[in-house]
Automatic annotation (TrEMBL):
Keywords of the record: Coiled coil, Hydrolase, Metal-binding
PANTHER family on file: ADENOSINE DEAMINASE (PTHR11409), ADENOSINE DEAMINASE DOMAIN-CONTAINING PROTEIN (PTHR11409:SF37)
The protein's name in its UniProt record: Adenosine deaminase-related growth factor
CC cofactor: Zn(2+)
Coiled coil: 102-129
Length: 675
């Protein structure tokens, strides 16, 4: 039986002095023993101990300095050419090139070719031995207990090729600029491919894969939007408003307004409704806005009026509202779109979601549904990120009572306890809460949040649930971590004096900026001792910080779909996770805000596979093991969760190896031709 740290001892490959490899030059030396073993496998005999290393062998591969030049490759100078070879060497215009090639085609060339092939194989083997999944792969090859994993990986690779053939290659091409046709392919834009993805056998496989710990989930944006909208339909005190009217000056529905309007919801008391005034969003004189001034409309009435004002439209109110909450392909990948523009849409959706989420009934039902969704997606442990702030507005269902941050904790913990009792703690092995507050807050507000976080940790009712502290919100628009340096240092000292630890789990590196204060957040996360970092997309641009984070065992919570849709990379193959893994930085896979991206954790796992042609099940095993290792579980709980997960993983591999996810025989021969 393994443990969560046992399989990652290879991380940070060692050079001959025992230090983590940090440069290509050190990798040549560090991999010398791999070169020897590869040489023996290929040639059948050991390489002498004093043989030259890779670097010197490459340098000597085409060298001819120690060999005399054949006489027949020199010709007499053509008349009219002035050439005075210096130091007895022939000038360039004195070579007979045909003779050069004829002479080169000698037995010595065969020797060079053989050495080239041997060297190519040895370097490839040495590099493979430095790969992040090498230890897991080797164990699968040499341990009988992992025989199913080895067979399952072979099936995994076959399914990948069949998915490409049966779904991507067979799909109708899409039209681009001036009618140019583009084939569909694995690893294209997520929102362009998601319908294809969900039809593949590999996606079914990922749904069934036990995924360990999910460590980066914004709690208010985890479920598909229809869930909260359906609850809101039955709430008498649910109101809706818009920044603009949805009709033109003649009272006709305005398609542009439908696209541009920013819709918000809230549970409101009768007094609040009276203070703001009721209005008709479908009236040309509607008083809109984004603050507390806009007139409000009862949501039930809105639902009644919408279809009457859209008699000639096929758009239903449900579809329209859901589309307002979910990123669409055209807006995400349109040529003018930028990361800034994507965040503008994201923030509008966050505001729209806030009121659908922030009342007692929704919070309770949402918590239970989230837990059920985690089970359905085969997640064993979760760390959720609710927002805590003094300005929180979580209401009782009648809109009369404001629930404070302690009350929010009670709502989550009570529903989790009920869920665990119902399921006898057999499906979700644990849940913790990361205390999050906006990075746009003032120093005093963040200080107050840190104080409250520590109070929760020291409270016997809440302490075991508090995983860590984080700042959230658009990184480039909020304060950099360094702005709160004094508050963070004071917090760490206060925690130490109280005999407890609340690790920082900072969002940072979620940016394309280079050389800005935002870009500097990675350095501050390192100095402040962050246990994990959220996103870390920019980390490969900081090799020293990346190396120091490796030494301090900092893990990166990678959110591939989120980073693509919010403008950091156009496609998964350009994601920095592959650079991080190539440098043996510990990473985990997370969804971030699945509500807005039409995704769940299985989709992000699929995308990791889509961007790396040689990704294996062994690699996914390593990522999952890291997720458990770098969680904030207590050590004894972590050990138990790992043991339970390992049993599930072995059973999963047997299912794959036994062909449960194979295509039917006729499917592999009946794929339609691409159009």
């Amino acid at each position: 039986m393994g443990n969560p740290t046992h399989h990652s001892n290879h991380v940070g490959a060692k050079n001959t002095q025992g230090h983590p490899v940090s440069s290509l030059h050190e990798q040549w030396d560090a991999s010398d023993h791999h070169e020897k073993s590869a040489h023996k496998r290929l040639t059948g005999h050991s390489r002498p101990e004093k043989s030259p290393t890779f670097a010197s062998r490459i340098g000597a591969l085409f060298s001819s300095s120690s060999k005399p030049k054949p006489k027949n490759i020199l010709t007499k100078k053509r008349s009219g050419l002035r050439s005075t070879p210096s130091q007895g060497r022939a000038s360039k215009d004195s070579f007979d090139v045909d003779a050069l090639f004829a002479t080169a085609a000698s037995n010595e060339v065969q020797d060079t070719e053989n050495e080239y092939k041997i060297l190519r194989h040895e370097i490839g083997a040495a590099e493979a031995a430095l790969a992040f999944d090498h230890v897991c792969s080797q164990k699968a090859n040499h341990e009988d207990s992992r025989a199913n994993e080895l067979q399952a990986d072979k099936k995994f690779q076959q399914l990948r090729q069949l998915d490409i053939k049966l779904h991507y290659d067979a799909a109708e091409k899409v039209s681009g600029y001036q009618g140019q046709k583009h084939r569909r392919f694995l690893g294209d834009h997520f929102l362009s491919n998601v319908d294809l993805i969900e039809r593949t056998q590999l996606f079914k496989l990922f749904r069934a894969m036990p995924k360990g710990a999910h460590l980066h989930i914004h709690f208010n944006a985890n479920l598909l939007p229809n869930f909260l909208l359906d609850i809101a339909k039955n709430m008498d005190r649910m109101y809706v408003w818009s920044n603009i009217s949805l009709v033109d000056s003649h009272g006709k529905v305005d398609p542009t307004a439908l696209d541009l309007c920013r819709i918000q919801f809230s549970i409101l008391s009768p007094k609040s409704v009276g203070d703001r005034g009721e209005g008709d969003i479908f009236a040309s004189n509607y008083k809109g806005g984004t603050g507390k001034e806009p007139n409000v409309m009862q949501f039930k009435k809105f639902l009644e009026v919408f279809p009457h004002r859209h008699r000639n439209s096929r758009v239903t109110v449900d579809a329209w509202l859901q589309n307002k909450l979910v990123f669409q392909q055209e807006e995400t990948y349109g040529i003018p779109q930028t990361a800034e523009g994507a965040w503008e849409k994201f923030n509008a959706r966050t505001q729209m979601m806030k009121g659908l989420f922030n009342y007692k009934t929704a919070y309770e039902k949402y918590t239970i549904k989230c837990l059920e969704d985690f089970v359905d997606d085969n997640i064993q442990y979760v760390e959720i990120r609710p927002n805590f702030m003094s300005t929180n507005q979580v209401w009782s269902d009648d809109g009369l009572t404001l629930i404070d941050n302690a009350g929010i904790l009670d709502l989550i913990i009570n529903q989790y306890t009920l869920f665990q009792k119902t399921h006898r703690e057999q499906v979700i092995k644990g849940l913790k809460i990361i205390y999050c507050t906006p990075r746009s807050f003032t120093k005093q507000q963040v200080h107050d949040a840190l104080v409250e976080c520590l109070k929760f940790k020291l409270n016997p009712n809440y302490g075991k649930y508090i995983a860590g502290f984080d700042l959230v919100g658009e990184e480039g628009m909020g304060h950099p971590l360094n702005f709160f340096m004094e508050e963070f240092i004071l917090f760490k000292k206060a925690c130490a004096m109280a005999g407890t630890e609340i690790p920082f789990l900072f969002h940072c590196g979620e940016t394309l900026d280079i050389g800005t204060d935002t870009d500097g957040n990675l350095l501050d996360a390192l100095l402040l001792g962050s246990k994990r970092i959220g996103h870390g997309f920019a980390l490969p641009r900081h090799p020293l910080i990346m190396e120091q984070m490796k030494k301090q065992n900092v893990c990166v919570e990678v959110c591939p779909i989120s980073n693509e849709i919010l403008g950091l990379t156009p496609r998964i193959s350009g994601h920095s996770v592959y650079n991080l893994l190539a440098n043996n930085v510990h990473c985990t896979v997370s969804t971030d805000n699945g509500t807005f991206f039409r995704s769940r954790l299985s989709h992000d796992f699929y995308q990791i596979m889509a961007g790396k042609s040689d990704m294996t099940l062994h690699g996914f095993r390593q990522l999952i093991e890291w997720s458990i290792e770098h969680s904030c579980m207590e050590s004894d709980v972590k050990q138990q969760v790992y043991q339970d997960w390992e049993k599930m993983w072995n059973h999963f591999c047997k299912r794959v190896a036994d062909g449960e996810f194979d295509y039917p025989m006729n499917a592999t021969t009946s794929a339609p031709n691409p159009q």
